[in-house]
Design brief:
heterodimer, A: alpha/beta, Rossmann fold, 6-stranded mixed sheet, B: 82% helix, MetI-like_sf (chain B), Glycine/betaine ABC transporter permease (chain B), transport (chain B)
């Protein structure tokens, strides 16, 4: 992965006595102290991060955390006080006015929280805005805009005005306006926050679908952790203008950097985020090619369980045997387990979200077997581990 | 108190006016230019037969209100214009209309750019606000004196005095309109790489249009209120009729001409308001 967008030591201070505030900041004074003695507000303090080509990077935080300031410094709607923003290695903060216009016109497009559609323009003219100011000729820009509207699922609204559309549809136009421009980077500022929950979910799905084909580099601002976990390839959590933690959704959930992040993730619907691999435990198994009923029995007694999983020499999953059947084999002095193996065991892949297997887990007594593409047994999922994971306790073999 | 000498404000201003008068060439050029506009309007109105003029006014009203069909307004216009013709005020009415249109046009051409500048610059707004207050609150008669000094008597100084008095609403409302454009739309325009001019013509002015036009409407009404005052320095028209009626204590004649001004005002007001009505459907 290559970094499309790099942010280095980016700082924004609002107010009048900025040099004084910068000194205080360097001396390690807190936000409140700086506000008191210099009358300046620290919006973002020394932010460093990279966004990889083709990933959805979610910047998360509550209001006042500096996330909106951050995204606006990326396209310099807000001038950074210090630091650098690099796109493909080019430093944006040193560009002159004309170069900056070029970057805004060709490299990145922004989607806004309250849609920011121009009420005096029709849907198609709104969508074509970016192309229009670039000087693309009329036929071409109308065609491109029409395609972009089709892409976001808006047919036949070309000549309506924004006020005639619902919120969800307006934001589709907002997204189409950004897509029509065909820039590689999308900046999405709380793009779905103004939508009702159902619409929001639709739009998130839509964005993920689009992203599969378009592979844009997306910086997405959100205050909703569920949203962040759902769409983010990586998430950066901000608090009071500082970065608290950057990581994949799983890392955020399983290894919260501090109390703040922990409090954040308390309310998350974990079933949607955690996958089979997060909750599976190490299975007890026997090798059918080498182990007989007595070994199987001993494994069960050792581990105080009533069934054991069966694999072959290549660790390919075959089935499960339970204690009563194994017991009868021992009585009959059989040497092979084959005759009593139950093969109707539910299996799943490690990437399956728990929410998809919840139903089966709750209705069948046999634990799920987690297998990879080659049918190798990776682990099993027992009910207790699932409940533990959902309630936020650590699970899994490594912890 | 008696020991403090009186500030020579009036002599300062006299000196300033005398100094300004030395730019005679400039003022002559302005006089000729404005005179040209006035003559142009007057030439057109003199050329139009009364029936065609009425047809234009009614047609214009009908077309601008084609969705709502203001039949009462159209009826009023016909009756009103017939009254003016019947009273023998037709030429006076067109002269007044010329004065109003000329000063509104000049107020628009000067006022809108100034308003835009104010809308974009906090400093310019701070400087200009007290000047606009001054222009509007200074009794309008006072403008007549230097206007005569620089532009002689007749229609031109009347137009100049009207412009000074009537322009502030256009400037103020343009400024307001530009500032009222929602911040996120400005951000959107900026984020897609608009230049200042693109932002102005594609976003700010279209969105400020209705506020701006309300200002133009105000300016027009204010310049109409100047017609009687302007007649004191020789501007022709309905104002002149009222002014003479005052001099002769002729209540009947005064009201007859005053009523014609009211009719003209209502017609102008309704037409400019209809132009302003938005095409964009409300949600």
């Amino acid at each position: 992965m290559t970094a499309k967008l790099e942010v280095r030591h980016l700082t924004k201070i609002f107010g009048r006595r900025i040099p004084r505030a910068e000194e205080l900041l360097k001396a390690g004074k807190s936000k409140a102290e700086i506000l008191k003695s210099a009358g300046a507000t620290v919006g973002v303090n020394d932010a460093n991060f990279e966004v990889n080509d083709g990933e959805i990077f979610v910047i998360m935080g509550l209001s006042g955390s500096g996330k909106s300031t951050m995204i606006r410094m990326i396209n310099r709607l807000i001038e950074p006080t210090s630091g650098e923003v690099l796109i493909d290695g080019e430093n944006l903060t040193s560009l002159n006015k004309k170069q900056l216009l070029d970057v805004r016109r060709n490299k990145m497009s922004m989607v806004f929280q309250n849609f920011a559609l121009f009420p005096n323009r029709t849907i198609i003219d709104n969508t074509a805005y970016g192309l229009e100011i670039k000087g693309v000729d009329k036929d071409e820009r109308l065609k491109k805009s029409h395609d972009a509207l089709e892409l976001v699922g808006l047919h036949g609204y070309d000549n309506q005005y924004p006020t005639q559309l619902s919120g969800g549809m307006q934001q589709r136009v907002g997204l189409a306006r950004a897509l029509a421009n065909n820039s590689e980077i999308l900046l999405m500022d709380e793009a779905f926050s103004a939508l009702d929950p159902l619409n929001r979910k639709d739009m998130q799905d839509e964005l993920l679908d689009l992203q599969e084909n378009l592979h844009k580099t997306i910086v997405f601002i959100s205050h909703d952790l569920n949203e962040a976990l759902r769409i983010g390839d990586r998430i950066m959590i901000m608090k009071d203008g500082e970065i608290v933690q950057t990581g994949t959704p799983e890392e955020i959930l399983t290894q919260p950097a501090d109390d703040y992040v922990e409090r954040f993730i308390e309310d998350v619907d974990r079933t949607k985020v955690l996958t089979a691999s997060n909750v599976m435990i190490r299975p007890t198994f026997v090798n059918i090619d080498k182990d007989g009923p007595r070994i199987a029995m001993r494994r069960m007694v050792e581990n105080e369980i009533s069934s054991v999983y069966v694999v072959n020499n290549k660790r390919e999953f075959i089935g499960v045997v339970d204690a009563s059947h194994v017991m009868s084999l021992i009585k009959k002095k059989e040497r092979k387990l084959d005759s009593v193996i139950q093969k109707n065991v539910p299996t799943t892949s490690p990437d399956t979200p728990i929410t998809d297997i919840m139903d089966t887990i709750s209705s069948t007594p046999i634990p799920y077997a987690v297998v990879d593409d080659q049918n190798h047994l990776l682990g099993i999922i027992i009910r207790g581990a699932v409940l533990g994971a959902i309630s936020g306790n650590e699970v899994g073999e490594d912890e | 108190m008696n020991n403090i000498p009186q500030l020579p404000v009036s002599s300062w201003i006299d000196k300033f006016v005398d100094w300004l008068a030395s730019f005679e060439g400039f003022f002559n050029a302005v006089t000729n230019f404005i005179g040209g506009i006035i003559n142009g309007f007057q030439w057109i109105f003199d050329l139009l037969p009364i029936w065609l003029f009425m047809l234009l006014v009614v047609g214009c009203t009908y077309w601008l209100n084609r969705k709502t069909k203001h039949w009462t307004l159209i009826g009023f216009e016909i009756v009103g214009l017939l009254y003016i013709w019947n009273q023998g005020f037709w030429r006076d009415m067109t002269q007044t209309l010329t004065l109003v249109l000329t000063s509104s046009l000049i107020a628009l051409v000067i006022g809108v750019p100034l308003g835009i500048w104010m809308g974009k610059s906090k400093v310019f707004e701070t400087i200009n606000k007290p000047i606009l207050d001054f222009m509007q609150t200074m009794p309008a008669f006072v403008y007549l004196i230097p206007a005569v000094a620089f532009f002689g008597i007749g229609m031109v100084p009347g137009v100049i005095a009207s412009v000074i008095f009537a322009m502030p609403p256009t400037i103020r409302m343009t400024n307001l309109g530009i500032r009222q454009v929602p911040a996120d739309l400005i951000e959107a325009a900026d984020s897609y790489g608009s230049t200042s001019w693109q932002k102005l013509f594609k976003v700010q002015l279209p969105l400020a249009k209705s506020t701006l036009m309300a200002g133009v409407n105000q300016s027009m009404m204010l310049s109409l209120s100047m017609v009687v005052i302007a007649s004191m320095i020789g501007a022709m028209g309905l104002g002149n009729k009222v002014y003479f009626a005052v001099g002769r204590n002729d209540a009947g004649g005064g009201f007859a001409a005053g009523l014609a001004i009211v009719i003209l005002a209502i017609i102008l007001d309704r037409i400019t308001q209809a132009i302003n009505r938005s095409k964009i459907p409300k949600s």
